[in-house]
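Page 37, continued from 36.
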């Protein structure tokens, strides 16, 4: 088993940034990624709030640049799913669905995964009209009517992206006020293809071979509503990928890892960075900052134990 000084779990913005800082500190650095690097940022069509790109940059392009930067600095990559972490005298052993990986320090940057609605039809029509990623699946809905569920930034960005393809986009939100950033809310309200549907939640998704209808219930006791649509995009927040972690890595009620300002978790030498951490803001810019802090703190920690 190769002996790494820094093992980073997750190849999204936080993990790649930690890799860049780890490699520049000349730490033997490994990023363990389940599928492909880039995280949720790579499924975002356009990122307009990452400083330095006045015209915005596509999510895949930004993440490819970060991955290339990490590789160029000598970060190594392993593709496996983390399933456990075991302390040992010289650090930790990361258990994966493949090999075991030994690291003196660990940075957890496993991000989040989208929440599901949990309504009848959602599982039946998943991949046949029900989607959690407009940039991945939007092009299948050219000239069709679609529903986007949620009132946050992801829902707003998803709906705006879908205007390229769909004929009409209903944005269904459970309140009468968006959670999304004001500038995105203004764009939604102004777009001729978008109709905001307030105070409604999805009750059921119906169809034959594909989604055909979405049944909505009123959150204020008003009339139910039925929308004829071929697609339903779910953007109702996400939950952290932490279920595989040991109980002694302290998390909050929602499962987000609690760290101090140096990204240190409750286990010495184990740090957390990015969306998986309890944090007031989940953006690419905050994730990369977390990753940098975590790697620098890992280096300091190693200085103390080596
Ligand atoms: P979010 O901000 O948590 O918003 C989730 C939305 O879904 C909220 O409007 C919420 O309603 C609604 N919702 C939650 N559970 C629901 C349910 N069971 N049924 C119906 N609606 C439900 O999640 P997000 O939009 O994925 O964003 C996550 C984080 O990433 C945020 O910090 C966001 O700012 C960030 N982000 C930023 C950008 C950007 O800056 N460009 C893009 C994407 C994401 P309520 O409002 O009533 O709670």
């Amino acid at each position: 088993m190769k002996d790494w000084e820094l093992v980073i779990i997750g190849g999204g913005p936080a993990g790649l940034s930690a890799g860049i800082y780890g490699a520049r500190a000349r730490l033997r650095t490994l990023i363990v990624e389940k599928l492909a690097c880039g995280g949720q940022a790579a499924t975002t069509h356009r990122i307009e709030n990452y400083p330095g790109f006045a015209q915005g940059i596509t999510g895949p392009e930004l993440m490819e640049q970060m991955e290339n930067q990490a590789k160029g600095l000598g970060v190594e990559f392993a593709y496996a799913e983390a399933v456990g972490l075991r302390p040992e005298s010289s650090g930790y052993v990361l258990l994966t669905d493949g090999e075991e990986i030994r690291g003196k320090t660990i940075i957890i940057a496993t991000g989040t995964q989208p929440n599901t609605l949990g309504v009848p039809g959602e599982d039946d029509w998943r991949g046949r009209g029900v989607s959690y990623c407009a940039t991945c699946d939007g092009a299948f809905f050219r000239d069709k009517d679609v529903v986007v569920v949620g009132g946050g930034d992801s829902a707003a960005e998803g709906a705006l992206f879908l205007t390229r393809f769909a004929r009409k986009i209903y944005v269904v939100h459970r309140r009468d006020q968006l959670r999304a950033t004001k500038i995105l809310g203004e764009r939604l309200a102004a777009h001729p293809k978008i109709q905001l549907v307030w105070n409604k939640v999805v009750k059921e998704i119906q169809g034959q071979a594909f989604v055909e209808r979405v049944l909505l219930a009123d959150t204020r006791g008003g009339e139910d509503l039925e929308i004829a649509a071929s697609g339903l995009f779910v953007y109702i927040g996400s939950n952290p990928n932490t279920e595989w972690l040991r109980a002694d890595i302290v998390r909050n009620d929602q499962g987000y890892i609690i760290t101090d300002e140096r990204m240190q978790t409750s286990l010495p030498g184990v740090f957390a960075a990015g969306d998986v951490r309890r944090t007031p803001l989940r953006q690419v810019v905050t994730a990369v900052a977390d990753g940098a802090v975590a790697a620098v703190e890992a280096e300091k920690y190693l200085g103390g134990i080596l």
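The chain has two domains: 3-113+238-302, 116-234. Flag for discussion at group meeting. Residues 49, 149-155, 157, 174-175, 179, 201, 235-238, 282-283 surround NAP (CB under 6 Å).
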